[in-house]
């Protein structure tokens, strides 16, 4: 670090004198004039040098002053940090002192209790076993008399407060075994042809018609069907399949099958399907007594008309769930409007097939987008128990959904898939050590597990049933729920001769 040196000697700024001899004559006059000029230049150079030295000294002084200020600032910051640490240490010392005082106080109380216990033991030692037992029980009964009365009073008040809610839960749980008396429809997207000759016209010259149709609709057309006179339309999007079905039926009737006509009829089919979905959503809401819903919600609800799960039409299932939920809500005296809305829109996330996430997560997003009440959003979020139930309305929607999906005839499943599902359930159960046999019964809604009694004890079967239940939930997809029953049986056999 540089400091200002007061002893630094600056060059003299006094004018430099020089003797000039003036001689008579023209030559001497010129020499005198030149000497005067040189003297002025020397004086000017001296002044410039003095100014430069002065400027350098001033700059160095400013720099030293700035460095001094920065040093003072750092010192002040360190002082503040030290003061904060001193305050913190002071607080810690106070806390330690307070804790020390509390420890000393507790030690005094413990010593007092020890003395009292010693005195009591000295008195009891003179009693017989029975006398000491009676004395202890008498003292205990006297001490607990007030506590027992208090507990009884609290239990009575709690029972009174919760009795109504418990009664509702009992009724709701009893209704889970109910069923409705009508069956949801199940359809397959196919188009019937009057003759095999029409297939050639659908294909067109060099396949241009069928390519134009697939490009406009986004579906795959399968002409090589096992059934004569039938065309299958394949796509993961049910709305596209419906548009393709309508357009193909119109093309077959029109008989003018060419790319331009295909585009016209496909656009007409799109408009028709959009109109049908809007009307279907409006009718579904009106059927369960819901009005003044957002138009976007009704349009999205109508898309469920072309959505199926295990062969169950999702719009019909939504209406069915809403009706069951409304009926249960009316029976138990809770908000029927919330239950009906939650039941109608509980699977609305299934319409968002192109987005990532479960249908529950997507349904929550849509419900929030339409500004549905929080209780309705909770019904959507909790109908598969992805979240804990927050109110009785969400429980009712969960039960109504289970009733709609679990009743006989509601869902369709191929025989091969059904057999594989039962086998998977049994294989999971038998994968645990100590399991002797496992049987899937009631169409896969219950699994009976028989264990080896010498390997698994009574407490072990509780853990085994829980482990099997957890593995079924993690590894399998199935409708409804599966009851896991673990049986442990010990037999002793002897023969009398």
Automatic annotation (TrEMBL):
Enzyme Commission code(s) on record: 3.1.-.-
GO molecular function ontology, one term from the record: RNA endonuclease activity
Alphabetically ordered keywords of this record: Coiled coil, Endonuclease, Hydrolase, Nuclease, RNA-binding
Residue stretches making up the HD domain: 314-406
A Pfam match: KH_1
Top-rank lineage group of the source organism: Bacteria
Enzyme's top EC category: hydrolase
Coiled coil: 36-165
GO cellular component terms listed in the entry, alphabetical order: plasma membrane
SUPFAM superfamilies: Eukaryotic type KH-domain (KH-domain type I), HD-domain/PDEase-like
One GO term (biological process): mRNA catabolic process
Function: Endoribonuclease that initiates mRNA decay.
Family in the record: Belongs to the RNase Y family.
Protein's name according to its UniProt entry: Ribonuclease Y
Natural source organism: Candidatus Curtissbacteria bacterium RIFCSPLOWO2_01_FULL_41_18
Protein's gene: rny
